[in-house]
């Protein structure tokens, strides 16, 4: 019988992968399983803001805002290729929050999180500032520009998983936990391969339930346990729409709505604007969530209240929806429910522990992982605590020594055949590791076939070998966002290629047969 893992983690979202990375880097034996693709749940459906959450100040969530603001700059340092500074423009709107209140909120926001790298808030005269140009003329005179960051949520998950694996963790995707039983000193965990239906089992000394919106279902139906009364999870759906670009600059907007909510509009993948989000209580299977007609209408209305160019559902080129697994603090309104996290430890009479993760944001995943390992410390080898805090200092894969201009120059020199937009896309997604995809290539032909847009065989093979990609959707919607520009037939050809390339012992088909 194999030696049990120190920790088994159920769930390959940001929280599961963040815990896996931290634990593996401390020398622990880690097993993580994800029933779908990494980030296949909520962690690829966020707004992508790495932010303190200005509006949480209205709910006096100072702990969360302070921690998230600090993390903003930590993530900027450890993942500079996929987390970037963002300026947000907040227009004052007559009849809603007064100018003094916005100033006060932004003053606090600027000062409680130890901001060092990002610029401070500035007041804007929207009648003359370029940020006012796309807005309805004569309607918004005063605004504020403040700092946050934006990141690629799904890539952040994948890079945490990659780094965990580089530190020895086993990362098993398309592998579902169907049952886990607690014996006194270990968990026996039954796994099911989602492709073949084959069952297998592993053992671990501690179990982490990081299944996001599935956390309660996992407890009830897979682990034979429940949450303590009164400490439930609240599932809140949020949707986004993507429309053709509504403005040309690279700042984003934060719009206040008459219902008290706020809606973001962000530059997206060059040619588009991303608008979100909504908040509505959700019941059902989180895997099946889709943006409703009402949500799409709501987001179009929000954009049309501010931008000179109206937006209607007919403009929507893509929409996506996710389910926030919020810790239920019994707030009346779904938008008011706390975004902070709670860790619930279950270890009756010194038995092997189960830790459940309730809530949390992409932004705070790294601190959440540290807190999770602190809670599990009594059950883990004490040597693992000596490296606590290491994830704040070590770059994620591709982020070490990343400097955009220098990398661009190097890629342009070493691979002169690459189009500048292709070069920039690779550097922006993979950082220094872009060179692993391109290694040895002298011409475009050396990168193999082109599946569509600038996606080459070399990149796809890298994603399969290094980033756990198995299907076209993994590549087109989570490792990249090329799904926006791929046709159905291009996506189908990519799927066929990947299926053949990953089939056991089967050689990939001759390129002529693809497409
Ligand atoms: P998930 O990402 O859902 O991961 C859980 C995983 O567990 C899933 O992949 C699932 O497939 C897997 N799983 C479930 N059951 C099993 C099983 N039995 N066996 C194996 N695997 C299983 N946060 C920010 O910081 N900034 C933002 O801008 C932001 N915007 C958001 C906007 C929206 C609309 C939403 C919905 C959320 C937003 N968030 C944001 C919050 C953030 O996205 C979530 O808090 C975070 O992604 C939750 O991650 P998770 O790992 O807990 O859950």
How would you characterize this protein structure?
Helix 1 packs across helix 7 (365-376). This protein has helices spanning 14-25, 62-78, 99-111, 153-166, 215-222, 293-306, 365-376, 404-414, 420-430, 434-438, 457-466, 472-479, 488-502; strands spanning 7-10, 30-33, 49-50, 83-91, 122-125, 142-151, 170-172, 175-182, 187-193, 199-204, 207-209, 233-244, 252-256, 262-268, 272-276, 280-281, 318-327, 341-346, 354-359, 450-452, 455-456. Strand 9 and strand 10 (199-204) form a beta hairpin. Helix content is 29%, strand content 23%. Residues 510-515 have low confidence and may be disordered. It folds into three domains: 5-42 and 154-231 and 339-392, 3-Layer(bba) Sandwich (FAD/NAD(P)-binding domain); 84-149 and 233-330, 2-Layer Sandwich (D-Amino Acid Oxidase, Chain A, domain 2); 404-502, Helicase, Ruva Protein, domain 3 (Orthogonal Bundle). The protein has 13 helices and 21 strands. It is an alpha+beta fold. Bound molecules: flavin-adenine dinucleotide. Flavin-adenine dinucleotide binds at residues 10-16, 33-36, 40-43, 45-49, 176-177, 210-214, 218, 222, 238, 277, 322-325, 357, 360-363.
Give the helix/strand layout.
Layout: E1 7-10, H1 14-25, E2 30-33, E3 49-50, H2 62-78, E4 83-91, H3 99-111, E5 122-125, E6 142-151, H4 153-166, E7 170-172, E8 175-182, E9 187-193, E10 199-204, E11 207-209, H5 215-222, E12 233-244, E13 252-256, E14 262-268, E15 272-276, E16 280-281, H6 293-306, E17 318-327, E18 341-346, E19 354-359, H7 365-376, H8 404-414, H9 420-430, H10 434-438, E20 450-452, E21 455-456, H11 457-466, H12 472-479, H13 488-502
Flavin-adenine dinucleotide binds at residues 10-16, 33-36, 40-43, 45-49, 176-177, 210-214, 218, 222, 238, 277, 322-325, 357, 360-363.
């Amino acid at each position: 019988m194999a030696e049990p893992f120190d920790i088994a983690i159920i769930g390959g979202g940001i929280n599961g992968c963040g815990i896996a990375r931290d634990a593996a880097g401390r020398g622990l034996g880690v097993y993580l399983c994800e029933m779908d693709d990494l980030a296949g749940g909520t962690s690829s459906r966020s707004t992508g803001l790495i932010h303190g959450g200005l509006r949480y100040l209205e709910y006096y969530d100072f702990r969360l805002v302070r921690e998230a603001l600090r993390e903003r700059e930590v993530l900027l340092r450890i993942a500079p290729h996929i987390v970037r500074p963002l300026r947000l423009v907040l227009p004052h709107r007559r009849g809603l929050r007064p100018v003094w209140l916005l100033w006060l909120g932004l003053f606090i926001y600027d000062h409680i999180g130890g901001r060092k790298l990002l610029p401070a808030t500035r007041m804007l005269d929207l009648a003359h500032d370029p940020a006012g140009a796309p807005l309805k003329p004569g309607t918004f005179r005063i605004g504020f520009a403040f700092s946050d960051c934006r990141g690629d949520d799904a890539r952040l998950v994948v890079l945490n998983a990659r780094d965990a694996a580089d530190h020895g963790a086993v990362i098993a995707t398309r592998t579902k936990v169907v049952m886990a039983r607690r014996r006194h000193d270990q968990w026996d965990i039954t796994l099911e391969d989602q492709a073949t239906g084959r069952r297998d089992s592993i053992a671990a000394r501690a179990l982490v339930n990081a299944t996001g919106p599935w956390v309660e279902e996992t407890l009830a139906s897979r682990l034979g346990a429940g949450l303590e009364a009164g400490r439930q999870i609240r599932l809140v759906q949020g949707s986004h729409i993507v429309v053709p670009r509504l403005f040309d600059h690279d700042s984003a907007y934060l719009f206040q709505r008459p219902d008290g909510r706020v809606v973001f509009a962000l530059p997206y993948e060059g040619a588009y604007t991303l608008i979100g989000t909504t908040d509505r209580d959700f019941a059902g299977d989180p895997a099946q969530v889709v943006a409703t007609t009402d949500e799409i209408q709501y987001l179009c209305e929000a954009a049309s209240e501010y931008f000179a160019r109206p937006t209607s559902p007919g403009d929507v080129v893509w929409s996506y929806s996710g389910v926030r697994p919020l810790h239920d603090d019994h707030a009346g309104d779904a938008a008011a429910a706390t975004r902070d996290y709670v860790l619930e430890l279950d270890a009756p009479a010194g038995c092997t522990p189960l830790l459940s993760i309730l809530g949390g944001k992409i932004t705070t995943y790294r601190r959440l992982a540290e807190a999770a390992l602190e809670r599990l410390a009594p059950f883990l080898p004490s040597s693992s605590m000596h490296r606590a805090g290491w994830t704040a200092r070590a770059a994620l894969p591709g982020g070490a020594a990343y400097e955009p201009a220098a990398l661009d120059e190097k890629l342009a020199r070493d691979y002169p055949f690459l189009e500048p937009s292709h070069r920039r896309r690779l550097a922006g997604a993979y950082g220094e590791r872009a060179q692993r995809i391109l290694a040895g290539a002298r011409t475009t032909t050396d990168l193999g076939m082109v599946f569509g847009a600038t996606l080459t065989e070399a990149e796809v093979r890298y994603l399969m070998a290094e980033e756990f990609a198995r299907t076209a959707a993994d590549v087109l919607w989570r490792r990249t966002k090329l799904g926006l520009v791929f046709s159905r037939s291009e996506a189908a050809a990519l799927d066929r290629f990947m299926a053949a390339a990953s089939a056991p012992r089967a050689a990939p088909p001759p390129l002529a047969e693809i497409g």
